Amino acid sequence: MSGLGFRSLGTVNWYVNTLEDEGYLYRTKGSNGKRALTLTQEHATHPEACLPLLGLIAAGEPIEALETPNSVTVPSSLVRPDNFVLQVKGQSMIDEQIQDGDYIVVKKTATARSGQIVVAIINDEATLKCYVPKSDRIELHPRNPKFPIITIKKTDNFYINGVLLYSFREYAS
After folding, report:
1. Where do the domains of the chain lie?
2. Domain 48-168, CATH 2.10.109.10 — does that match?
3. Per-residue pLDDT tens digits for 38-84
4. What is d(CA 139, CA 108) in angstroms, rounded to the nearest whole number?
5. CA separation, residue 148 to residues 27, 101, 141, 163 (Å)
6. Which residues are known to be catalytic?
7. How many helices (H) and strands (E) does the chain have?
8. In 3-state terms, the chain is what percent helix, strand and coil (to 5)?
């Protein structure tokens, strides 16, 4: 317990219960008759799974939102029915360590909290930006000072298509 930095058995129990509730662990009796924790078969044998790669997302000026269905291998913990992958095109989010060519895992949702990185659709064009709602407008902030803030006008057809969960990049092997 102290090796993991926990001071309380209650904290350890909370984490174990959460992992059990999420389907990662189940409780058994070990061969010696004592309690044991075992990885569920799904997570023990399939550490990776696939999510749909739906196309490109602009990290810069918005680009036309086109789907180009494919799939990408991701950790199985990210596989949920409402998650999908996009490939980043552009440099507007480099201060968030999101580079041109990176892949992002997005949770499909129509709402976001201020400061979350979102897939925003503006007049049928998609962009990846930091969502900043104001009392009288919505702003989409890049994370690169070389790019301008996008202010959503009342005449714009705007909606949030999802929030960023995870980003990764592939390196040549």
Report:
1. 2-45, 48-168
2. yes
3. 766 665 555 678 888 888 888 877 666 656 668 888 888 888 889 99
4. 20
5. 53, 21, 8, 21
6. 92, 129
7. 2, 12
8. 15, 45, 40
